[in-house]
Design brief:
β3 and β4 form a beta hairpin. The strands form two sheets. The chain has an eight-stranded mixed β-sheet with strand order 1-2-3-4-5-6-7-8, with helices on both faces. The protein has a two-stranded antiparallel sheet with strand order 9-10. By secondary structure, it is of the alpha/beta class.
Length: 372
């Protein structure tokens, strides 16, 4: 089995001028977007200039950056890519990193200049913060979340003085941002975009998928998901998907390091596995059954409970699971009756639309709790 690290051994000696950018390069740039590049890459709208990937790696090491808390830490990929002919001279600029808990936004993007006439704009996916996940859930009912607005503005600004071709892409939420930015950027910018990659990125709510802008850009979108996808099936997405094999199981297939590579492309699977298909049907039936107010109440109630845990990241939630659990249970019990009833109603509806015993157990638990 081979992954993106093995790909660098195979193709790392070929420049982008010698071998055109492909779907594996896309996944590499999307993974590199997880790098915390503050104080390394020139900031968007502030400093001018750029820096090669090789020198990014040197500065990253010098500053003792550590992202090992991420399940798909980008550091090993950075080190390996920075020592290949293919990637070491790729120039990075316009790094933007925005986090604001009050505005419920976690956004980051960076531009990779592959050649004088070609750039790959990569959007970071959801990091380990609970606030980042809140924004993911907000996508289900909001016409436009702050991260999507930032993505559109970022692409418009980067493309303003660039006369070459542009590729947009990202992993997880970054894929959603790439598609959204491609659909709603300025018309003269759309003409420069030749491809949009969504690597296991969640989809869009009913309002967005009905727009002319979204449907007009779908021909440029490459939707890539692992065979057991649980993220790329969320909400409405492009129907045609490239389904790739993974050497991981379940939710761990979301990791870019697990996707199997064959030459300059992915090793494909004939279809999603059974668990992914059931989850796909379950989630779509559930979302279709809720109106905007119901979705909003559910999301707010869910994250009120998570906030009550005192954790700011999923790692903290996991490390202090019993403390977090007790705090969340208390928060749920302290909710006013309307909020509590709405949360129970949504979970019941989710349970009734699926076939998995987990949902039935959840329904039973909420029924029991609500009768106390």
């Amino acid at each position: 089995m081979a992954n993106i690290m093995d790909y660098l051994d195979w193709r790392g000696d070929l420049s982008f001028a010698a071998s055109p950018v492909n779907e594996i390069d896309n996944l590499i740039f999307s993974e590199l977007a997880y790098l915390k590049l503050d104080d390394i890459v020139p900031m968007h709208g502030v400093d001018q200039g750029d820096i090669s990937l090789y020198h990014v790696w040197k500065d990253y090491v010098y500053l003792s950056c550590d992202q090992s808390d991420l399940s798909y830490d980008p550091a090993p990929l950075l080190e390996k890519a920075a020592h290949t002919e293919r990637f070491k001279n790729v120039m990075l600029k316009d790094y933007l990193n925005v986090f604001d808990k009050d505005s419920h936004i976690q956004f980051a993007a960076v531009s990779f200049y592959l050649k004088d006439d070609l750039i790959y704009i990569a959007f970071r996916g959801t990091d380990g913060t609970i606030e980042g996940w809140r924004e993911d859930f907000n996508i289900s009912y909001m016409r436009e979340v702050p991260g999507q607005m930032e993505a559109v503005s970022y692409v418009n600004e980067v493309a303003k003085d660039f006369n070459g071709k542009i590729i947009l892409g990202g992993h997880s939420k970054g894929g959603n941002l790439a598609v959204y930015a491609g659909a709603f950027c300025l018309d003269n910018v759309k003409d420069k975009i030749i491809k949009i990659y969504s690597n296991d990125g969640p989809g869009f709510n009913r309002e967005i998928v009905k727009t002319t802008e979204y449907n007009a850009v779908l021909d440029k979108v490459e939707m890539i998901i692992p065979e057991a996808s649980l993220v790329g099936i969320l909400m409405s997405n492009k129907k045609e998907k490239l389904i790739v094999k993974s050497d991981a199981s379940g939710a761990m297939q979301h990791s870019p390091y697990s996707w199997q590579v064959l030459g300059t492309g992915f090793e494909t699977a004939p279809k999603q596995n059974t668990a992914s298909l059931i989850a796909d049907d379950t989630l779509n039936n559930w979302l279709d059954s809720l109106d905007e107010d119901e979705l909003k109440r559910f999301v707010n109630a869910l994250f009120d409970i998570l906030d009550a845990s005192g954790a700011t990241t999923l790692s903290e939630l996991s490390d202090n699971k019993w403390i977090s659990f007790n705090a969340m249970v208390k928060a749920a019990k302290d909710m006013d009756k309307n909020t509590r009833d709405n949360l129970i109603m949504v979970v019941k509806r989710l349970a009734s639309s699926g076939k998995d015993v987990i949902w039935n157990e959840a329904k039973a638990a909420f029924d029991s709790d609500s009768n106390k």
